[in-house]
Write a structure and sequence with these properties.
alpha+beta, Alpha-Beta Plaits, 6 helices, 5 strands, elongated
Length: 175
C-alpha cells in the first residue's frame, strides 16, 4: 500500500528524531525471513532498547540527513531494515549478529557509529563493545586493583617480620 504524503512526513520525522539521539546504526536486509522470526527479532529489539524500522530508502535518506548517520546513505539500496541502538552502542549489532547466525537469509549490510560508516564484516567491532554495566564493572576493577595490591603489601610486612623472628628463634634453639 502506498504511503500518503502525511504518512511519509511522519515516517521521516520519527526516524529523524530517533537518529539524532541514537548511539549507533545497523543496516540489514531481511528479505526471506519468516514473519514469526521477524516478530521475535522485534520483541528482542524492544527488550534491548533498539529501535527497528523497515523504511523506504528515499525516506530513510531524508530522515538521516543532517545527522551523524548521513554517511550511511550509500548503503540504502534494496530492502532496508534500520536498527538504532538507543542506550548501548553495541546492542543493535549484537542483536542483528545473533539473529543472522540463526537465519541465513538475514543479511547485515553496514553499520554506522560516530559519523563513520563500517562494512558488515566489522560487525564484531561494534558487537563486542561492553554494555554500560560491564564497562562500569571493568572500571571498578581497574580502580580497585592498586588499592588491593597496597593492602596485600601492607599485610605481607607483618607476616615477613613474624617469619624472620621465628627463623631467628629456631636458629638460637638449634645453636
Amino acid at each position: 500500500m502506498a504511503l500518503r504524503l502525511e504518512d511519509k512526513k511522519k515516517v521521516v520525522a520519527d526516524v529523524s528524531k530517533v537518529a539524532t539521539s541514537a548511539l549507533s546504526l545497523v543496516i540489514a536486509d531481511s528479505r526471506g525471513v519468516s514473519v514469526a522470526d521477524m516478530t521475535r527479532l522485534r520483541a528482542e529489539a524492544r527488550a534491548n532498547q533498539v529501535y527497528m524500522r523497515v523504511t523506504p530508502n528515499n525516506l530513510a535518506k531524508f530522515a538521516v540527513a543532517g545527522t551523524e548517520y548521513e554517511c550511511a546513505v550509500e548503503s540504502f539500496r534494496g530492502p532496508t531494515l534500520l536498527g538504532f541502538s538507543m542506550e548501548d552502542p553495541g546492542a543493535a549489532a549484537r542483536l542483528f549478529k545473533d539473529f543472522s547466525k540463526e537465519n541465513d537469509k538475514f543479511e547485515i549490510k553496514a553499520l554506522a557509529v560516530g559519523g563513520e560508516l563500517l562494512g558488515a564484516e566489522q560487525i564484531d567491532r561494534l558487537a563486542k563493545l561492553p554494555t554500560r554495566e560491564q564497562a562500569l564493572s571493568m572500571l571498578a576493577a581497574v580502580t580497585l586493583a592498586p588499592v588491593t595490591k597496597l593492602v596485600r603489601t601492607f599485610n605481607d610486612v607483618p607476616g615477613r617480620v613474624t617469619r624472620v623472628v621465628h627463623a631467628v628463634a629456631e636458629q638460637k634453639k638449634a645453636a
